[in-house]
Structures are given as structure tokens and as C-alpha cells.
């Protein structure tokens, strides 16, 4: 039993979660919305639901107890699940574009292989969900036993009723809410519990003693695959590393609005799940070190009731119940949809009210799962039992389908039968002790490929039906890799030092002062014992730091020739910063045995360094400082390490993780935003300089210019003037948000004005006889990708569409890079402006050996058929974009003119409603 405070926290949290979760699902009217929602979930939300689905309450008990019982054997196999999630994001998701509109795996399989395959897949999905749900309900029984003292059997029944009703009445939106709540709650409480247990350990060497002497952590035994136990866990790793595509997992993929969002969500989820697994493993190792004689079944109970305190215990139990609810309702939701949509309907049952029937199916699944949970068996056994229903039956043919292997329904049915039979046989009479799902999957694969070729079935390796997302991803990776190699080849040390050094004279002086303060703070607060133990160190460090700090303090007095050579000042600043703040900070922390004051000074030093330089260089300096200082201390200050080597290493690792996480989570986005802002400023500055030169000669091309110019200049100028006046008059009374909004209006008005000026000036220049082209060889493939990146950055708020890039690499043309780039900018910006949702497809390919074809297609508002020729005229605007607030009629006219002077052509196609396609042809000269 727990205290009344913990009980109140537990009951209140569960009640609040149910009320808010069910209210968030109000208004669901169709089974599709019940199953996969409205596809308006953010990437972070989907990642949270993926982690919450994986991180069930079962996993908390399972990972802690099995790590306690099997050590590195189980840790090794459990990391397979992390890799499995990562594989979905990196390999599988980019190939699953054709399945995003399916509600479930059985529907996807049935659409390719027929009704029988769909029905078997549905039964498989329903049963595996019941098995996984049973594991969660078994944990709910333990939770109710801990909280209220009820026998486990009553806890299983109560937990089953609770999560079944919640999922049946809620739908995916309530499931998603629970997932997010679970991740937030448990993501906070789990590290808190770990530090609570860690803080109770007085001698940290007992942890290392456990890791170094306990045979469960002896890697020579663990990875000796001549031993039966090692072989078992090796196959358990193979089982874990294969994505099962369970009903809930597929549902998470189908929730995404496109392949890219699904890919990112799974990659983020893999990192989050790795953190949770390592935290649970760390907790288990701590308990094994301090109390190695516990019964495995009681390890979780001991941690919850004995190692936590009032308040924290209630939140942990609530978070654990939230884990149970989030995973359970995910599987109830997805499996009930499968039962109605993929089993009952294909069997011919006529269901008029699908939503009500789906909720009844959810209740049926909950009842079956309660029966499984009460049947006995450990959590690991229940997990492996559940996998038998899915992985040897559905997972293998579905994964082969994703990779582009297609066969007939006959071959798939043969493979399913072989996999199920092998798994069942292995479960009853195993030849060797390995999870039955593994040989079942092997049999499925062998019979699938064998029956396909022996029976000469149609299909084979036909490829992916929708390769565009995969091709775009591959091209993006190739582009990034090529840019990375170019950056290495063109590395400029002077520029690098400049980016990682202050550009203000005062910062040199302030850095020198801070080195003084840091040294004096360490000298004044370090123990007298340390001073007596290492007198030579203090005799050396004081003058060396003072000398280097003085070098920065005297920066204003440096010779002009020194200052003129910026490399010298930048190198000196980086060396002094590394030595005086990073290296010396670590040395003081080590010789003081990580005294709190020295650690605090070190962290302040490292944060200062991280703020002053780019986060990548800061990480290099910090890790280099830790490595060098530990090596120097090991050689010259052995006394500092002899007493508590293990504790020291743990604290250094903790510090590095803390500072590294700080840099990546907080400073990385800020510095990336600053870099983006610098790019925008440079881009706009260059364009403004060009416009200042060209606007002098810009003349009216048609009489309509007079009518357009008032609107095109007056509208943005009004925005700039009004917002500027408001900022000037009311700056102090405005909130930060209001000031930011006003600045955004000014910036957008300026971009619009500048775009109009640039197009007018270029069009005017090209209409004169005296223009000159700077003809050069241009890699048009790279230019397209570069201009797309720029336009996406400059129009980030409007660029909500999905970009599909299908660009043939290495196409070279001769022309003026500036004008061709401006033409591409106009086409891309035009697509972004009139395609608020949907996709924008940019393609480039060779046409024979003499020409290249560029296409830009958007799923926007379209252009009427009778206007497709007129829109390339100067100041001609489509009737669908001719509004009081837009449409200049310059961009497409400029595109046509640029192509004319390059001996190219452009034409437009549209259905007048939902898409427009521009096709450009350029000669290969």
C-alpha cells in the first residue's frame, strides 16, 4: 500500500487524463477519423505517440527485471528495438508512400494480394494486439496491487475495463493525447527516480565493481555464441531488430501527412526510446549493485515502494499507468478498426454503423486480452507469444512488398502457412532454444521466394510504386554529401577562425577578464589539501593563465599590423579561451575531486564558451579539454585519481552529457536561426546592391506599369510605414510578440517590394540592346537545388507544401548563372505562393543529347485554359490571381525573356482547377 498523498496523485492524474482525452475526441463521425485522425498531427506529436506505443508499462517492468536478471545479455537484445525504430525511419518509411492512405496493414496487403490474405492479416493483427495488450494489463494488475493492495487478478480486470472503455469511446485523438501525456510525465519522472536512487549510493565504486566482476556483464561470455544462453539472446536481438509493423505501428505511419514527416518522426522516436531504455537499464544496474539478492519478480516493486519517496512515488505510478493506457489504447484502437474494416467487411458482414461496431470490437479485444493476461506467464513470454501471431505470418511478406518484391496471393498464402506452422512447431518442440518467431520468419521468407519462382508467379522485383519520395531523399543526401566534401576541400582556416571568434574588440577584453575571475575563483575556493598535494601545479598555472589572459586584456594596445592580420587575433583568442576556461577548468575540477564549487565554475566556463563560438566548435573544445585534462591528470597528478577513479569518470561523463545536451537542445537551434538570418541578410544585401545599380535605368515597358506601380509600391510601403510608425510611437508598451509581428510585416513588405524591383530592373535591362551575359558552364542540377533551398528559407512561413525533387545529376549548360537563377526563383516562388497545400514537383532530365528539360508542377489553384499563352506577357496576370492584393505580371514575363536570350523556351499547362505545370527547355551547349 502507498500513502494517501500518492494515492490522490495517482487517482487524480488518471481521472484528469481520461476527462481531457475523451473530450479531445468529441465530434468523431467516421471510422477513418477514429482510426488515423485528420492527419493534422505535428512531427513531435507523432514521435511522442511512437515512443509511447513502444514504451508501455510492460517495458518498464520488463527492462528493469530482465536487466537485473540477465545483465548485458538482455541489454544487447533490447537495443535491437531501438535499431528497429530507426530502420523504419531510415529505410522503410521513405518507401511506403503508396500505403499512407491505407487504414491498416491488412488493407495494404489485401489491395495487393487479395481478400484471403487480407482476412488472414486481419486475424493476425487482432491476435497480436490481444497478446501485447495482455502484457500491459498484467502490469496494470501490479499497479493496482501496489496502490490499493488488491490481488493482481482484480487489478488486471480493473485495468482492462479502464483502458478498453477509454479507447473505445475516444478514438485516435484521445490515444494521441494519452501518448503525449505519458511521454511528458514519464520522461520527467524516470530521470528523477534514477537520480533519487543514484543519490543514495555513497560509494560509486560498487557500480563499477558490479559491471567488472558480475558475469552477467562479462562481454567475453555474453558474446561467446558457443554458449546456449548467448545464442538465445542473439536470436532475441534478431527478433527485436526486425520491424514487426504491428497494427499500432502501421497506424503511426498512416497518421503522417507525408513520407518525410513519417521518416523524421521515427528517427526522433528512436533517439527518445534509446534515452528511455538507457535510463531504465541504469536504474536496474543501480539496484543490482546495491541489492543483488532480490527476487526478479519483485525488482520493480522494490524500486517503486522502497527507492522513491512520497509524491514522487505517486507520480511514477501515475506515469506507469499512463504508459499502460497509452500502449493499450493504441492497440485496442488499431485492432478494433482491423476487426471491422479488414475482417468483418471482407467476410460479407453488412455493417451500417461502422463507428459503433468498431467500439464494440474494442470491448471484445479487451475481454480477450484480459483472458490472456490471467493465463499466466512472464512479461517476456507474453511478448514473444504475441509476436508469433504476426511476425512469422504478415511481417515478412509486407516488408518484401515495401522493398518492391511483388508476388501472387498464392505465394503469400503459402509463405504465411509455412511461417505460422514453423513458429507453432518450434514453440511446442524447439530444436534449439531460440524465440519461435525467428525460425518462423525464416521459413516465411524461404517459402515466399521459393514458391514465387518455382510456381512461376507474376511479379518479382518490380520496384517501388511511388519512388518519388525515396528519389528526393537520395538526391538530398547526395547533395549534402557533395556539399560536405566541397566544404572539406575548400576549407578556409581564416574564415573558420573568424566565425568562431568575437567580432567586437571589447569581447577580447571581457574574455581576458573572465579568465582572471575564473582562475581567482578556483584558487580562492579549492581546498588547502589540494594545494599542498600539487604545489608545482599551482606554481605553474597561475602565471600561465595570467599571462594568456593579459594578452587578451591588452588587445586594444596591440600593434596595428597584428590587428590587421585577423588570423593572429582569432587564433590567440581561441587558444586562450581553450586553455584558460576549458582545460584549466577541467584540471581544477579533477584535482578537487569534483568539489561543488569547482564544478560550478567549470560549468559557467563551458557555457560561456558555448555562447561565444558555434556549437560544433564548442563541442570539439569541450571534449578535447576533457580528454587532454584527464590524460594530463593521469600522468602528472596520479594522487588525484587514485582514490576515486570510477567516480571521477562517471562525473566527467555526466558533465559532458549535460553540456553536450545543453548545446544541442538550446544553442544549436538558436545558432542555426542566426545563421539563417545571416544568409537572408547577405542574400538581401546582395540583391539590394544589384537593384541600386539597375533601378537607375529601369523604365516603363507598358502603359499598365503606371496602374501597377501605385499598387505594387504603395501597398508594401504602407505596411512598412505604418508598422514603423507604430514601433516608434508605442515600442515600450508593446509586448515582445507584438514587436515581432510588426517586424515580420516590415520584412515581408520589403521582400515583396524588392522582388518587384528586381524583376522590373532585370526585364528592363534585357529589353535594351546593350545587355551583356556572363556566359559560363553551369551545373544546372546543383543550381536548382541551391535556389530551392534559398526560396524555402526566404518564404519559410508560406512554404507548407511538400517538395518532390526528381533531378538528374550532372547536367551542364552554358549561360548566365544570375539570370537563370532569377528565373528559377520566380518559378519556385510562384509555385509556393499559389500552392498552399499539396505537393510541388521539380524535375530535370536530359532530352536526347542536345537539350535539358526542367518542369515545375504545383497542386495549386490552376490557370484557365484560355490564359495559358497570355500569362507570359509583361504585366499580364491570370484572372485567378488578379486580386486587389496580388499579381504583378512580371515574374513569368521575366522567365520567358531569360529563356529567349538563352535560346530556350517555356510553356504552361493546367487543368484550370487544381494544378499548373511549367516546362522549360534549355539547349546543352
UniProtKB/TrEMBL annotation:
Q: Which Pfam families match?
A: HATPase_c, HisKA, SSF
- Which Gene Ontology molecular-function terms are recorded? phosphorelay sensor kinase activity; transmembrane transporter activity
Q: Which UniProt keywords are listed? A: Kinase, Membrane, Phosphoprotein, Transferase, Transmembrane, Transmembrane helix
Q: Give the subcellular location.
A: Membrane
Record-listed E.C. numbers = 2.7.13.3
Topology relative to the lipid bilayer, per the entry, is: Multi-pass membrane protein
The Histidine kinase domain extends over 708-925
InterPro entries on file: HATPase_C_sf, HATPase_dom, His_kinase_dom, HisK_dim/P_dom, HisK_dim/P_sf, Na/Glc_symporter_sf, Na/solute_symporter, Sig_transdc_His_kin-like_C
PROSITE patterns named in the record: HIS_KIN, NA_SOLUT_SYMP_3
Family statement: Belongs to the sodium:solute symporter (SSF) (TC 2.A.21) family.
Q: What is this protein called?
A: histidine kinase
